[in-house]
């Protein structure tokens, strides 16, 4: 079996699968208040097509981890069946999901029973008024209940993804960490990236990793002795605290902009309409949906996937003057 190896020797073993471009929030840094033009149903992969591509990735290309994303993946009607099909694969991949948490309270146990291993929940503020302003929806309580349900269902470690924005919620870093420590969640701060639908990202409004760590100095963070490997988050131990599993509590920072980790990237991405993206910031895609619907064999699809990954660039190039923001926003690409 030949895996997904690029020209720089990186091997993709982590598959991010966007199940829908739809979302039930309207976060200001992601999309306009009126939302976006969603993909027509006929352009989206069917449940069987998603399942087949995941199977090809696992059985023929060495995929070891599958993360379901969106948009908001909980909006996908066939979500439980897709997760269950992936859990039956041999070798069984580790299965994760990133969600905004709305509706998670209702479905957390079903996701566990279907075979999901772990959950990430996006949460940028603990203040109800700020939440309404940021997401244009009054759903903070739903998100918090979703987090609790995920932990109760054993979808652990439950990770919380937070984007800090200058002049909006940058002062909440300590409070968010206290909240995560109280409930045994693992907090991950993420530098805001140029993936908004409005193309209004401004580096000067982004809260950097250095600023985040400075705000957390009172916690006395210590260097994590465990190597990050290919994980996107650089982590620190929080002395005097443990997580829900009794392990040392950790906080992470995903510094995609100021501390890029492209050299260790092990990810490949599948969009809801069947396009392979070899980088989050890629400006080109490779169409697997067309091959699927034209009757291509598993071997032919696998080879097209390999070719797509061989074209991966050395890095995302955000600091290069020639950098172009992807035409698709994050909600259409998947995390």
The secondary-structure element order is EEEHEHEHEHHEHEHEEEEEEHHH
Count of individual beta strands: 14
Helical content (DSSP H or I, runs of 4+): 25-40%
Structural class: alpha/beta
Span from first to last CA? 27 Å
* Beta-strand percentage range: 15-25%
- Computed CA radius of gyration, to the nearest angstrom: 19 Å
The low-confidence parts are none
Largest sheet: 12 strands, mixed
Query: For this structure, what is the CATH homologous superfamily?
Result: Aldolase class I
CATH top level label: Alpha Beta
Number of domains: 1
Q: Averaging pLDDT over every residue, what do you get?
A: 91
* CATH topology tier name: TIM Barrel
| Strand line-up of the largest beta sheet | 9-10-11-8-7-6-5-4-3-12-13-14
Shape by Cα distribution = globular
Number of helices: 10
Architecture, according to CATH?
Alpha-Beta Barrel
The oligomerization state is single chain
Give a quick set of tags describing it.
335 residues; alpha/beta; TIM Barrel; twelve-stranded mixed β-sheet; two-stranded antiparallel sheet; 10 helices; 14 strands; 29% helix; 19% strand; globular
């Amino acid at each position: 079996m030949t895996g997904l190896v690029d020209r720089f020797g990186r091997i993709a073993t982590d598959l991010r699968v966007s199940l829908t471009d739809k979302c039930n929030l309207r976060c200001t840094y992601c999309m306009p208040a009126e939302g976006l033009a969603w993909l027509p149903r006929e352009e989206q992969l069917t449940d069987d097509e998603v399942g087949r591509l995941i199977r090809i990735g696992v059985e023929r290309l060495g995929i070891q981890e599958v993360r379901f994303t969106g948009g908001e993946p909980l909006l996908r009607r066939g979500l439980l069946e897709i997760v269950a099909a992936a859990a039956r694969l041999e070798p069984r991949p580790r299965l994760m999901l990133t969600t905004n948490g709305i509706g998670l309270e209702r479905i957390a146990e079903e996701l566990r029973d279907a075979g999901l291993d772990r959950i990430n929940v996006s949460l940028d503020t603990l203040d109800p008024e700020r939440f309404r302003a940021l997401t244009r929806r009054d759903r903070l309580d739903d998100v918090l209940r979703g987090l609790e349900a995920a932990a109760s269902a054993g979808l652990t470690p439950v990770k919380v993804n937070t984007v800090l924005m200058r002049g909006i919620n940058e002062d909440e870093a300590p409070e968010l960490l206290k909240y995560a420590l109280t409930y045994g969640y693992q907090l991950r701060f993420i530098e805001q990236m140029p993936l908004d639908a409005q193309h209004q990202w401004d580096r000067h409004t982004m809260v950097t990793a250095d600023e985040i760590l400075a705000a957390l100095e009172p916690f006395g963070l210590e260097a994590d002795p465990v190597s990050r490997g290919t994980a996107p988050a650089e982590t620190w131990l929080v002395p005097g605290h443990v997580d829900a599993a009794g392990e040392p509590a950790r906080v992470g920072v995903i510094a995609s902009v100021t501390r890029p980790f492209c050299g260790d990237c092990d990810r490949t991405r599948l969009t809801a309409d069947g396009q392979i993206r070899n980088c989050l910031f890629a400006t080109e895609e490779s169409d697997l949906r067309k091959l699927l619907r034209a009757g291509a064999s598993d071997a032919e699809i696998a080879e097209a996937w390999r070719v797509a990954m061989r074209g991966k660039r050395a890095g995302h190039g955000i600091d290069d003057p020639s950098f172009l923001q992807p035409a698709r926003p994050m909600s259409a690409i998947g995390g």
